[in-house]
Amino acid sequence: MKKVTSKDVAALAGVSVSAVSRAYRADAPLSDDKRRRVFAAAAKLGYVSRVDHILSSQSSNTIAMVVGDMRNPFYPTAVDEAARLLSERGLRLILHAVPTGEDVDLVMRQVLDYRTEGVILASSRMGSKLAVKCRQNRIPAVLLNRVQSDSHMKAVCCDNYGGARMIADRFLRSDRRRIAFIGGQRDTSTHLERMRGFTDHLATNDVRPTVELDGGYSYRQAHAAAQMLLAERPLPEAVFCANDIMAIALLDAARMQGIRVPEDIAVAGFDDIPMASWDAYRLTTVRQPLRRMLNLAVDILTDPSSDPAEGDIRILPGELKQRASA
């Protein structure tokens, strides 16, 4: 059988031979569209690049981390903490960042080609496709900060339901009854559990959110939602945002309109990103036990008795950080 070459891949993908070479180097300039076409053509033809040969011969002792939502400060913080923790444990980190708006397919080939102890999948928005592929290839994989309705999945996350109940209780104890909610993405487990915990606890006191808006877990979308919310009359007495970056967007919008926090409106978030403690925000929020979550994820990945095909869900309690915003 004729050996498949880069020329064959280039012809099928409709790119130059040099573009094929650049596709396998993360630091090389190449459009995302061309990179996807190259990888699709390589997979169809069974092409093995020089980079693939190098990767397959590398030693293990590494953990891969696939991260999306890099505009959400929670995930860069998670990467930084993972790098520190793995170094302390004598392991190396290989980072695969999925660009905003792109599918995990963009990095799937690289993830599967590296010889690693396992993969941490960190994104509230990422689907389960890569986790399933890892399982099919007998590569241990753990979801971080989310769960999937799949009995074979391994995941480590904060108690989103319980954390949101603590926020609701905080509002109720301060005698606030006109309460709003700004959520993330409706099809994600973090959004669903935080919304459910919040509304369930309010319901025990015969309170329900007066306004519910979508913030998309992003600053820009949440800022637009905040402007609509702050136009409400009467103004809500308290707002729970399903993550900190959305709460920060609300605080910025309130400041621009001269609305006082917490006198006119109380604001709380979830995650406890570094910005939450800044003097400009002093945000009341739920701290995720990030280091413990990462440690547990690495324990699962490096456990020789763990079967990649067996499910394992670990949920750790969060901590309410009471600051000036609520």
Terminus-to-terminus distance: 69 Å
Query: Going across the major beta sheet, what is the strand order?
Result: 2-1-3-4-5-11
> What is the helix content?
40-55%
Helix and strand pattern: HHHHEHEHEHEEHEHEHEHEEHEE
CA-based shape: elongated
Largest sheet: 6 strands, parallel
Low-confidence stretches: none
The proportion of residues in beta strands is 15-25%
User: Average pLDDT across residues?
Assistant: 88
Number of helices: 12
Number of strand elements:
12
Structural class: alpha/beta
Task: Tell me the radius of gyration.
Answer: 22 Å
Key features?
six-stranded parallel sheet; 12 helices; four-stranded parallel sheet; 326 residues; single chain
Helix-strand layout with pairing:
Layout: H1 6-13, H2 17-23, H3 32-45, H4 50-57, E1 62-67, H5 74-88, E2 92-97, H6 105-113, E3 118-122, H7 129-136, E4 141-144, E5 154-158, H8 160-173, E6 179-183, H9 189-203, E7 211-214, H10 219-230, E8 238-241, H11 244-256, E9 266-268, E10 285-287, H12 290-302, E11 312-316, E12 319-321
Parallel strand pairs: 1-2, 1-3, 3-4, 4-5, 5-11, 6-7, 6-8, 8-9
Antiparallel strand pairs: 10-12
Helix pairs in contact: 1-2, 1-3, 2-3, 5-12, 8-9, 10-11
